[in-house]
Amino acid sequence: MGWRARGRAALLLACLLPLGCAYKTYPNTLAKNAQIRTELDPGFLFFETIRASLEVHSVDPSCQTRYEGTVELDADRIRLGLPPGEPSYLVFRFATSSFLANSRTSMDTATLLTPRPDRDYEIEVSYLDDLYRVAIWETDPRRRTRRELEKRGLGLCTAARSGLTGGD
Question: pTM (2 decimals)?
Answer without folding.
Answer: 0.78
